[in-house]
């Protein structure tokens, strides 16, 4: 479809799974990952209040800088990686086509 993009989830080093996601529904990366069966708790429902949707952005297009609420929540994590983001705060648009992420390890 013309409004679809491809997101890649690195499940193991060198092994990436492609997800086709629509950009015309205003979905977040968290919503698409959950719908595709990934174990993301998202206990706050996407409000940047729990950090249970933590992902590491490995490569792809430049994303908008995180807002203060996201940065504050990332600071509460025991392990923050260089590409750490909350997937609930990443809106899927045509510009996010080709994004590569890895789910943060449990407890990270």
Automatic annotation (TrEMBL):
The keyword Transit peptide does not apply. It comes from the Bacteria. Its cofactor is [2Fe-2S] cluster. Gene3D superfamilies: 3.10.20.30. Coiled coil: none annotated. InterPro entries: 2Fe-2S_ferredoxin-like_sf, 2Fe-2S_ferredoxin-type, Adrenodoxin-like, Beta-grasp_dom_sf. Residues 3-107 form the 2Fe-2S ferredoxin-type domain. Keywords: 2Fe-2S, Iron, Iron-sulfur, Metal-binding. It comes from Hymenobacter glaciei. The keyword Protein biosynthesis does not apply. Belongs to the adrenodoxin/putidaredoxin family. SUPFAM superfamilies: 2Fe-2S ferredoxin-like. This is 2Fe-2S iron-sulfur cluster-binding protein.
């Amino acid at each position: 479809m013309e409004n679809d993009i491809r997101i890649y989830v690195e499940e193991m080093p060198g092994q990436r799974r492609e997800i086709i996601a629509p950009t015309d529904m205003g979905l977040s990366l968290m919503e698409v990952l959950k719908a595709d069966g990934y174990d993301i708790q998202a206990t706050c429902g996407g409000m940047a209040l729990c950090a249970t949707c933590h992902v590491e952005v490995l490569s792809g297009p430049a994303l908008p800088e995180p807002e203060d609420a996201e940065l504050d929540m990332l600071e509460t994590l025991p392990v923050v990686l260089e590409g750490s983001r909350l997937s609930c705060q990443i809106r899927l648009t045509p510009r996010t086509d080709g994004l590569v992420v890895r789910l943060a390890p449990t407890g990270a």
